[in-house]
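Illustration 12: Proton-coupled folate transporter.
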Amino acid sequence: MRVLFCFSLNHLFHSHLVEVILCLQTIYYCLAASIGQYVYSYYLKSYALRTELYPDLSLYSKTGSTIIQHELGQCKDLLTSSLAQQWAQKKSSNLFFYQTVASSVPTILMTYILGLYTHQLGRKFVLILTMLGNLVQYSIWLFIIHYELPDYWWHIAAFLSSLAGGGNVSSFILNLIITDSTKESERTSRFLYIGAMCTAIGAIASLLVGFWIEYRGFLDLYWTALFVQLLTIIIVYHHMKPQSFLPIVSKNSHDYIHNTNKNTKYNQLIQICMVFSPRHAYRSRKRSISLIITLVAFIFHCLASLSLGVPFLWFQLNYPFCWSAKEIGYYNTASSIIWSIGSIVGMKFLTYTRSSDAAICCISHTCFIVSALWVSQAMYNWQLYIGLLIAPFTTYQGSLTYSIISKWLEPNEINNAFTFVTEINTILNVFGNSFFNYLYSITVSHSRNFTLLLAAGLGVIPLILNCILYVVTKNIPDESDNRIKECIPILIPDHMPITVPAATQFQQSISKLSTFLKTHLQTMKNMITNLIPTMQNRIATQAVTSVLNVIQVIEEAIRKIHALFFS
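Figure caption equivalent — predicted structure in C-alpha cell form:
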C-alpha cells in the first residue's frame, strides 16, 4: 500500500510538474516584489541623515498631500513628514529607473538569443539558466542589505541577472510547454486555470510576506526566497524530462521542419520577425488582420498595465494611505483572492454567453479604464478595496493573447510567434519600468495620480482595436484559408452565431463609447495643460508634453474610427 501511494504521488507530481514549477516561481516573485518596500523604508530612515547632503530638499513645494493628511486624519501616526515621503519615493523610483536601464540592453539581447536557440539548448537548460540569474541577483541583494553597500550594487545585480534573460524568458518556456502539451481546444481554459491557481498561491504568499516584514524584517524573507528558487532549480533539473512535453504537430509541421532544418540562424531571425506578416499563402485576410490587431492591442495593454502597476507601490506608500508592509500584504492577499475567483467566474460567464475573444477583450479594457479612474481618485483605504471588485476582469487581454495567437497560426509557427511576443513584452517591460518610474518621480510632487490617469488613457487604444477586431472577425469572410483542418477553434470560438447587437445598436454603442472617451480625454488634457506651467524641470516638461501629444493622437484616432463606422 505504501509503495502504491508513493507511486501515485510520484505520478501526480510528474503530471502536474509545470503547475508545481509555476507555484514555486509565484512564491519567489511574491517575495522578490517586496524589495521595493525595503528600498523605500531604507531611504525613509536615512532621510534625516541625508538632509545635510541634499540641501535642495527644503526647496520642494508642499503638495496637497499635507492638506489631505490633516483633512482625512490619515498618516497621523507616521513619524516622517510629507517631505520625507516625497524624497524617499523620488529616490526609490530613481533607483529602480537606473536599475532597469542597466539591465535593459542585456535583457533584450538575451531574450532574443535564448528564444532563437531554445531548440538547440533545450527548454530545460534555458529555464534553469534564467533561474540561476535570479539566484545571483538575490545573493547580491542579501550582501547589499547585510553590509549596506552603495547604490551601484543594485545596478550590478540587475545587470548580472539580465545576462540570463530574466523572468520573461522563463514564462516564455513554460508557455511553450503548456501550449505544446495541451490540446488546442483546451488551451484557453488551462491558461486561465493555471493563472487562477498561481494567483491563489500569490494571495497566501502576500499575506505571509506582510506579516513577516512587520515582525521579522527583510533579511530572513530574502533567505527564504533564495531557498525557494534553489528548490525550483533542483526540481527542474531532476524531474523535467525532454520527452515529457512533446508538441502536438501536423503533417504540415513535419514538412516545414524537414525543409527548414538547413536554414541559417539569419533565416530563422527573419522567420521570427515575419511570423505576423500578412504575406502567407495559407493565411486568409481575416486571419492576417486579426493577428496584427491582436498584437498591437497586446502592446498597448502592456503599456497601460505598466503605467498602472509600476508606480502603484509608491502610490500605496504615499499620502493619503501611508500603508505599512502588513497593510500592503492584506491588500495584496485580498486582491489575489478576488482576482483568482473573479477571473474564472467572469470567464465562465462570458463563455456561457458565447462571447467572442474580441468581445471579452473589449469588456476587459472597459473594466480596466473604469478601475484606473476609480483608483486614481481614491482617498480612503476602503475605496482601494472597492476597486478590487472590478480588477479581476481587467487582464483578459494578457491571459488570452497567447491562446488567441496560437489559434490563428500553424503549430510550427507557434515557437517563432511566442518568441516574437516575448521579445516585445521584454522590451516593453524594460523601457516601461524605466519610463513610468521616472515619470512618477518627476510628477509625484505635482500630482500623485498622474500615471494612473495616463493608464486609463492608454487603455482606450486596445479597447478601440478590439472593437475593430470584433467587426473584422464577424463581417469579413474567412476566404481561401488553407490552414490545417485538425486545429479546431479554442474554448471561445469566433464563429458562433449571435443575435445581438444589430447594426444600429452597434453604431449607437460606438457613438456612446466615443463620447465617453472624448470627455475623459479632454479632462486629462485640461489637467496636463494646467500642470505644465507649474513644472520647472525642462525634462519633466518635455515628458508631460509628450503625453499630451499622445492624447491628441488618441483623440484623432477616435474621430477617424467614429467616421469609419458612420460613413
